[in-house]
Amino acid sequence: MNREAQLIFDVSKAGRRAFSQAPKPVADDKLSDLPAGLRRQSKPMLPEVSELQVVRHYTNLSSKNFAIDKQFYPLGSCTMKYNPRGANRAAMLPGFLKRHPLAPESHSQGYLACLFELQEFLKEVTGMKGVSLTPMAGAQGEFAGVAMIRAYHEARNDHARTEILVPEAAHGTNPATAVMCGYKVREVPVNNNGDVDLEALKAACGPQTAGLMMTNPSTCGVFERQIEAIAKAVHESGGLLYYDGANLNAILGKVRPGDMGFDVIHMNLHKTFATPHGGGGPGAGPVGVSERLKPFLPTPIVGQDGDSYRWLSDADLPQTIGHLSAFMGNAGVLLRAYYYARALGREGMLRVGEYSSLAANYMLKRLQQVGYTAAYPERRASHEFIITLAKESKAFDVSAMDVAKRLLDYNQHAPTTYFPLLVPECLLIEPTETETKEALDEFIDAMAKILEEARENPELVKGAPYSQPVRRLDDVRAARELNLVWKPA
Amino acid sequence: MSNIPAELRYAKSHEWIRLEDDGTAYVGISEHAQEAMGDLVYVELPDVGAVVASSDETGVVESVKAASDIYAPVSGEIIAVNEALSDSPELVNQDCYGDGWLYQIKLSDKAELEDLLGAEDYAAQLEEDA
Fold first, then answer.
1. Is A130:A287 a contact under the CB 8 Å cutoff?
2. pLDDT band at B11 (very low <50, low <70, confident <90, very high)
3. Counting beta carbons within 10 angstroms of the beta carbon of residue A161, is it exposed (0 to 12), middle (13 to 18) or buried (19 or more)?
4. Of B36, B41, B66, the CB nearest to A476
């Protein structure tokens, strides 16, 4: 038995108990309101283990995670930056932690003040005119953004707008969001330098255009240089511009989506504002809007009356697209983001974009020097960049996935693989501003060694990883057979 | 070079179409396309009876690494879909020109076939893309 992949059932011994966890016997009359037919006849299948075995098992499992606290994590488009511990301390102050979500406004002024200021910071840094913090994740932020575009057109009785334009270099979730909001998606091609094909875009714009969804810098890892012309073309056709905040880290404090002409934006605070993510944990996807979309912002929003703060609700915003969560987003995440913004200040925020782009451009150049091929060699990287292994895949039959798996043996988290779809055999690499040069160099050295291995011993790379609890997972079977319930053999 | 049967016509977006004697045609994706996608895990097909225009979206093929739209190579009415693919999407990988067909379409204008690529031209396009 591979001890590394041991299940807790594998160490079970009949009769062994963790006494502090053992359920107290329940008298039959306590179950009297449970119909006899619904009571189980057999004991549930539980592992029989000691308390120490439980602690040891799960502690060992947790240490197997690849995590930003343990490894370099250059997962492109995900902005896996350091999550400052100070933010945790601030968000866990008893006044925040013990505040009941239904507590009256007069008892929540400190909390409301933080959220109000966060709204103001986000407006300032994105150049938008209104912000709502309520979306609970990036996907919900996108949904809210496109729902506002729909509400805007409907309020103007403009019902002919049925299409959302999505460039090939948009964030991968954008087409799904447009469809969820009832739109047809029309794809717009990208040229060889990673810019939107402007002529194709102009041809696609018309009275059917509800809007365009894009991120800038784009998923090609380059800044869209024609953004003004793009905004003009979409606006002239009567459509609105949606900015996906996936890549906001590259331009934070430097260029503002509001100044580029975007009407609506969602931000991923769990990326750009350094709150923990990556394990499906809580996120925050606030939306920002231009003047004309302000009436449609999702509620609640924090408003200021003189010296005090209050919730703005549907009564204040009769045209709102409504509530998106029971209260208002994930309070703990918003507080961590607030701390982060305050800790950085205006100066610090400028450095986020500068250093994340510097780190990416350094890595791009070094990786080219050791023999890798940039997808857009003519372009400077934004905060992330793409290399393509199309050549290696032909020459040595070593794919981007093989390189990604081999990186794990060098204790490096793999970059994003096979995304964006328009670049064959690609790795999308995003180092973030919180890594030291030494950490970047370690990754580059590992990549250099893997390229050597691919040339001299491709089978070694194709068989990786060797150092992990399991080798290659059967991802086809995992996608085809979704039944994940474990049963004893 | 991947297998490109001479008797089929091809769309630039990598669908093939095979005209039958009764004026209907079978549509699938080329060997190059299925190879590029990798092992398919899901195939979404159009509704039988749907009337589509050439280059309309008529489904999606999804693999572990990508999802890709299927475009109608010609205009017409969908008269049958390959039901076997819902349980066995791998048929497209195993036999893309045979058991892995996607749907059958009744052409509204046979002349549209002329706008598609012949095997040689499609091979040339693949060369160019490579």
1. no
2. very high
3. buried
4. B41
Task: Give domain A351-478's CATH architecture.
Answer: Alpha-Beta Complex (3.90)
SS3 A403: helix
Residue keyed to tokens 């993510």: A277
* SS3 sequence of B43-99: EECCCCCCEECCCCEEEEEEECCCEEEEECCCCEEEEEECHHHHCCCHHHHHCCCCC
Measured distance CA(A64)–CA(B123) in Å, rounded: 47
CB-facing half-sphere around the CA of B53: CA atoms within 13 A? 0
Nearest to A418 among B42, B65, B68 (CB): B65
A217 neighbors A109 (Cβ within 8 angstroms): no
Q: How far apart are the first and last CA of chain A?
A: 14
Helix (H, G, I), strand (E, B) or coil at A207: coil
What does the CA dihedral A463, A466, A469, A471 come to, rounded to 10 degrees? Answer: 0
For chain B, the domains span 9-108
**A252-277 confidence digits (pLDDT tens):** 989 999 999 999 999 999 999 999 98
Tell me the two tokens of residue B127.
């060369």
pLDDT of res. A1: 45
Do the chains contact at B89 and A480, CB–CB below 8 Å? yes
Among chain A residues, the shortest Cα distance to B129 is held by A424
At residue B58, what are phi and psi to the nearest 5 degrees?
Answer: -130, 35
Tokens 């100066």 found at: A347
pLDDT exceeding 70 applies to what percent of chain A? Answer: 98
pLDDT-derived band of residue A3, with 50, 70 and 90 as boundaries? Answer: low
Identify the closest residue of chain A to B67 by CA–CA distance.
A421
pLDDT tens track for A159-193: 999 999 999 888 888 999 999 999 999 999 999 88
pLDDT, tens digit (0-9, with 9 covering 90-100), for A296-315: 999 999 999 999 999 998 99
pLDDT digits (tens, 9 = 90+) for A417-471: 988 888 989 999 999 999 999 999 999 999 999 999 999 999 999 999 999 988 9
DSSP label at residue A3: G
Residue of B nearest to A482 (CA): B41
Evaluate whether the domain defined by B9-108 bears CATH number 3.50.50.60: no
Second-level CATH architecture of A85-344 = 3-Layer(aba) Sandwich (3.40)
Burial annotation A363-399 (CB, 10 A radius, 16+ → b, else e): bbebbeeeebbbbbeebebbbbbbbbbbebbeebebb
Distance between CA B101 and CA B17 in Å, rounded?
9
Q: Rounded distance, CA A375 to CA A194, Å?
A: 9
**Could you give the ipTM of this predicted complex?**
0.73
Give me the residue label for tokens 């045209």: A319
Tokens of A122: 């986000």
Residue extents of the structural domains in chain A: 3-63, 85-344, 351-478
Residues of B in contact with A164 (CB under 8 A): none
Structure tokens at A58: 């799960």
